[in-house]
Amino acid sequence: MNTVISKDGTKIVYDKVGNGPSLILIGGAFSYRKFPGMVKLAKLLSDHFTVYTYDRRGRGDSGDAEQYEPVREYEDLDAIISKAGGTAFVWGLSSGAVLALQAAAHGASIAKLALHEPPFIVNDKDHVPPRDFSKKVSELVSDDRSADTIKYFMKKGMGAPSFVVTMMRMMPGVWSKLMAVAHTLPYDATLLEGYMEGKSLPEDFWNNVTVPTIVLKGTESPLMLRDGADALVKVLPNAELISKKGLGHTKQLNVKSISSELVLFFSAV
Hints:
The chain is of the alpha/beta class. It has helices at 36-45, 70-83, 95-105, 133-142, 146-157, 162-170, 174-181, 185-191, 223-235, 255-267, and strands at residues 2-5, 11-18, 22-26, 50-54, 88-93, 110-116, 213-218, 239-244. It contains ten helices and eight strands. Helix 1 packs across helix 10 (255-267). The two termini are 32 Å apart.
């Protein structure tokens, strides 16, 4: 376990494994550095890269601040990049992809960027969360209703059927892991504000993100995630879409498929 102090004084904990160019992995909602899928993915990639996984603020062993602002998470990534040698490849999953993209737009020293199914909802015919989604998530956390927060986030935010939530409650060890990070779900909701309303993405918002970028989507993923990936590629200056079976993230991560694509992309000259 390693630590770095972010710009606002918050302690961010990270793990480091492997050898080679620096690659930072950023998880989405419910994820943290010890999440089984993240650990497996880091191990597979460690033959090619020095892989950094970290607990986003408020999760795992990392610290937190009294008030959340997205820019603090961009600074957290900057701090990890500094430890990784001053520049790095970055892969972000779901809301972690949004974090990585926004950090790049704010000047983070990212050499190449892989954005894995960011939950941009660009079609009003797809599942669209309620307008007060972010506010409601924060209220549930404030009322110390962690279980209800998870259910609301999954069903109203992610569009998951009720039986999926029920199944997760029955799977040994799964629900306790979700409960441990439920208090950070307002952070993910805040990161996604304005991008889950069934509207087109802004055409010139990320014009300064000119680094080589891939956007990953699974052909088996929900339509809203596939639509969001397609839309994102169109507004990024230097992005390529990779669409294959096995790249979805709403179930257990297919780490072999994901690692294969990341090795090809980040190793290419």
